[in-house]
Amino acid sequence: MCDKKTVFVPLTPQPPPDSILTVQRYYAKHTTSCEYEKRVTWLEASHHCCSSHAIYEYRGVYPGVGDYQRIKPTVMEDIKEHVRCNKVKTVYDACDPVDGPASRKTVENAKY
Question: How many helices (H) and strands (E) does the chain have?
């Protein structure tokens, strides 16, 4: 600090442009509810040597969506197997209410 001002001293020698990485960020808030936020962070280089990986962070609960839970892969395989030779309603009614699909539409999608 010089006279209560921050002074940046440049590096000597300067690094080559190919070795400089830039951190990029993207922020978004839901328009109707400020309780849900999304942030995406990735590294960017001028010479594109970096892999295309990003970190997605979510905070809050997305408005209008209940508790979404993905069906276990083994349960989904059983549904696909049974729906080949049975009706969708029969397969859906036979499913476990806890581990099974949340709606009949899931079984219909598995059929096709």
Answer: 3, 3
